[in-house]
Design a protein that fits this description.
The chain has 5 helices and 7 strands. By secondary structure, it is α+β, with helices and mostly antiparallel strands. Strands 1, 2, 3, 4, 5, 6 and 7 form a 7-stranded antiparallel β-sheet that branches.
Length: 190
Amino acid sequence: MGLWEAMRARTTPKRNHLDALFLVPSAAITLQTALGFEPTGSGSVCYRSATGAAFAQTQSDVLALIRDDADAPEVTVTTDDFGFTWLVVAGDPADTSALCTDLHAVNTTLELNGFDSGLLCSMVPFANASGQRFGLTYLYKQGTFYPFAPAGPQSRDNLLELSVRDLLAPELPMEPDLQRWLAIWKAPGL
């Protein structure tokens, strides 16, 4: 931060690093070998929808982009209780690379068309044989990841979240501020 920004008490906003999504497939291998968690095959992007024809056309273009692939995954759009839109991509659980490419395409298309201010996060859910689940969540505005592990209707598995953070810290940019680890109740795939 420069002197001028310090005097005005302003900081430069952190830039996202969407290419970090391409690190998730290698992190998935680490999660599988160390903790027994495997990708579920689904992933999602959460954003605030805008009104108007430009946004409707952009969202339509995103859906067409993903659906026009030869091995097109299933794509759905839902709205949660808070009014956020979730674009959910469900494909082959063994192909995390394709899933992350699709999530990157959604984020990039919204960003390039001027709707980046509405982007909240992207999530890739994981599960183990005993039924435990968590979502590896990418915070768009921070450019960092954190695990969200719901353990009930309004409770979290903090031990699992911290274990995943510690395991993946050498591979992914993990969010250091625990207050930014949002509880995303009822997220698709969890």
